[in-house]
Amino acid sequence: MSSSVDDLAVGLAELTLSPLPLYFSQFPGFTYNPSVNAATEFQRLKRSHGKDANRNDFNRAFEAEFNTRFGRDEVWDYTRLCERLGIDPIPSSKTQARKVRTPAETFDRAGGRGR
To answer: Domain map of the chain by residue range?
Structure first.
């Protein structure tokens, strides 16, 4: 049986952690590094915890993290996303923002040759 202190600790963690750190925190002995790509961290988690690390649960946490940072569905804040990606100038509408290609994406789409 858990104590009220344990319950309080879990409750406080849920209040202060965003979705990805909260997802990773449920795996004992695993220390999530938020400065590393989340997919890379998930692969590291899979190596250490095997089938306990569920891809669908990770995907839900990743989507929730994105929505927390940039908004959900049609209300996403394209200006914050563009700023984070270093896009300058920031497009004047969501329609224009959807057409933007980052330098890395342009490089990938051209088969690694850039445009």
So the answer is: 1-76, 77-115
Residue type, 94: K
Cβ pair 81, 97 in contact under 8 A? yes
Q: Encode pLDDT of 34-91 as tens digits.
A: 999 999 999 999 999 998 999 999 999 998 988 887 776 555 677 777 887 788 888 8
Q: Which of 9, 4, 36, 37 is nearest to 25 (CA)?
A: 9
First to last CA, the chain: 61
Distance CA 63, CA 58 (A): 9
- pTM metric for this prediction: 0.59
> In 3D, which of 35, 96, 21, 32 has the Cα closest to residue 65?
21
Nearest to 27 by CA among 11, 50, 6: 50
